[in-house]
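We store sequence, tokenised fold; for instance:
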Amino acid sequence: MNYSSRKLLEVHITPWRVALVAGLLGAWFGVLAVRAAYLQGLNTDFLQGKGDAVASRKLAIPANRGMVVDRHGQPLAISTPVETLWARPADAQALTWQQISRLAAILDVPANALAKKLKSPHKGEVAINRNLSPEQAVKIASLGLPGLKLHREFRRFYPAADVAAHVVGFTNVDDVGQEGVELAYQDWLAGRAGSRHVLRDRRGHIVQDLSPVRGPKMGGNLGLSLDLKLQYIAHRELSAAVEKHKAKGGGIVVLDAKTGEVLALSNLPAVNPNNRRNYRPGPMRNRAIIDTFEPGSTIKPFTVAAALERGLVRPDTLMYLPKDYVVGRKHITDVHYHSQLTVTEVLQKSSNIGVVKMAMQMKPAEFWDTLHRAGFGEKPGSGFPGEARGRLRDPATWKPVEQATHAYGHGLSVSLLQLARAYMAFANDGVVMPLTFLRREPQELDGERVLSVHVARQVREMMETVTHEGGTATLAQVPGYRVAGKTGTAYKLVEGRYSRDSYRSSFVGLAPASDPRLIIAVMIDEPRDKGHFGGVVAGPVFAQVMAASLRQLGVSPDAPAEPVTRLTRPQTAGKPGEA
């Protein structure tokens, strides 16, 4: 350095400049020291939390969902382990197009769509595929791609597919019940997930367990009252009838009359819960429980029972019937005119005028009381999600025409399960058992008396004539067994008005009538071909299911060796128009 340069440096480096720089540096280090003391001493929890949020994770260990089985232990819903592929987009950015293409080929998805998912701005983890086959999982693991990981989950499988779908229901991708008993008993079936607190590196790999692993608690198994063999029979015969009559749909309920257990329940249309790629909620509705309809003539046995209980008629009471019976402005007629019928024949031939004349002799509250005690207007109490209450208005609001139409099943609404439950009163000598979808033993329950023993037996005997020659349901006969039941054919309400060409055809019956074991209720919605009356459309379904079910259960025949003769008409006093 020459003399002039040293002179210039001496001029610029003055003591006050040195002092200023030293002071600034000292102040800066002082600030850093204070900040370090604050962070390490006073704000340790905050920093620790931030660090844990980046490096530590609490991982859920899924619990194996409990099985759903039928009354004989046959599986209806089981969980199988599957591998789920997850990705961390932040780490998957390093994947090459060649690696993405190889992964897409294994997953059988378009490479462009997969690349879009892998390189999304999502900060956490995204599910790439939640239903890998074992072969796919092995191939993906062998690739060793960054930002991807396989996680063990459980997938629900339903061996009976659509046959029992409306009762069993299904779960979503997170294994949470969405419909049926899967929803109703979610807490019992799901169990409790375990947890694992781990430390992970920047690539998401687990490097250390920070606390002991808490294992999962497996879900409990659930035994249903369903008999899978009877369920298959009911579903098969219902499907055949819907196809034969080109109907919109239908439903069937099979009850154990002694215990109140639901042995079979099926609806159409149905859906296979194992394949929900094109899932629509409509076909999954359990219409036999959730939806209601006007029961039509299947309500007539309760009208007759109400009149019998109050001593207004006897089974052999002769009734004189006009061609046209007017209540208010309502003209009530019968499909086939009969000038006189006994009360038994009124039920056998399903006379609207006959039951209306009986109903109009009662006070509205008296008639309502019989219907209400039978369970109409109240939830049937099966425990199934969304079960319908039906409609039975306060009798104080009834007009005479409403009392009349209630007598033959118009103006009120019921579910098919509710209707089947009510018929237990006739099967059990006046006692209705509580409904259940879970298996139970007979000694576990107490029923509710809704009719006297005498009246219940009288009506059951009268309903036997419905399936005899001259009745409306000869096609509901079951060879070897006595059958009691009632047909129903009701116009459908469309936009608040009765359609003249849309019907619901139904039959509810019980057998063997001498000591009923089963109650079966059948409803066909909008039959369009080969008839529409309940005895023609629903009666044969009842007969086929009842015959096969009684054989399956080993119930002894009770039909007499000789053909049943028709009841003779007594000569009773009375003027035309009087019951």
